[in-house]
């Protein structure tokens, strides 16, 4: 409905597993974002991609590895996660301009549980 | 880094009562956005404020940006059960559309 889709919607994984989250935007935007939302902290920005180039990495542990193969797709590769990584992972996109601050469109999120 | 304080964390009102959430920063903000997240949903953009002292209205919602651009507020008149959710303020920090989200104010409306 928002033009940003995420799969899977729910994911349960063990600490030794490797999985990937996928995000796709159908809005023609040039910037994409990964956020983490947990019960204990506000919405945290993890990564920003602008024109497929990573421009921001908010001190995220290396067990989270983003990938942006093109302006419409964004992945978050997960490996050897910890139980405290359980959270809602939200993808967003926006149209970025030199002097424009534009709204971000969020996907429905992936609810991740790490056992 | 830049942070914003959002108060209250939680507000419980009877349907028809008014509601206000406040967003405060120790530094001057270039602009600020507001988002709403329904229970079980994702954040949805409501408004953006850019100018000092700016006031914008959307039906029963009134958004204000302080004269010093260090605070903002969202006021809902005569709340309805459809207003339930968490309201986040999110100023920009630096470039690349980097938003810094407040902790949010969770609104509960009882009929």
Report on this model:
The complex is a heterodimer of chains A (115) and B (111). By secondary structure, chain A is mostly beta strands. Chain A is built from no helices and 11 strands. Chain A has strands at residues 4-7, 10-13, 18-25, 31-38, 41-50, 53-57, 64-70, 73-79, 87-94, 105-106, 110-114. In chain A, the strands form 2 sheets. In chain A, strands 2, 4, 5, 6, 9, 10 and 11 form a 7-stranded mixed β-sheet that branches. Chain A has a 4-stranded antiparallel β-sheet with strand order 1-3-8-7, with no helix packed on it. The model of chain A has no long low-confidence stretch (mean pLDDT 91). Chain B is mainly β and 111 residues long. Chain B has a 5-stranded antiparallel β-sheet with strand order 1-3-8-7-6, with no helix packed on it. In chain B, strands 2-10-9-4-5 form a 5-stranded mixed β-sheet, with no helix packed on it. The mean pLDDT of chain B is 94.
| Poorly predicted runs of 5 or more residues of chain A | none
Strand order of the largest sheet of chain B: 1-3-8-7-6
Mean pLDDT of chain B: 94
Proportion of residues in β-strands of chain B: over 45%
For the record, give the distance between the C-alpha atoms at the N and C termini of chain B, rounded to a whole number.
Answer: 41 Å
Largest sheet of chain A: 7 strands, mixed
Task: Please write the string of helix (H) and strand (E) elements of chain A.
Answer: EEEEEEEEEEE
The shape of chain B is globular
SSE inventory with pairings:
The complex is a heterodimer of chains A (115) and B (111).
Chain A: E1 4-7, E2 10-13, E3 18-25, E4 31-38, E5 41-50, E6 53-57, E7 64-70, E8 73-79, E9 87-94, E10 105-106, E11 110-114
Parallel strand pairs in A: 2-11
Antiparallel strand pairs in A: 1-3, 3-8, 4-5, 4-9, 5-6, 7-8, 9-10, 9-11
Chain B: E1 4-7, E2 10-14, E3 19-25, E4 32-37, E5 44-49, E6 55-58, E7 61-65, E8 71-76, E9 85-91, E10 105-110
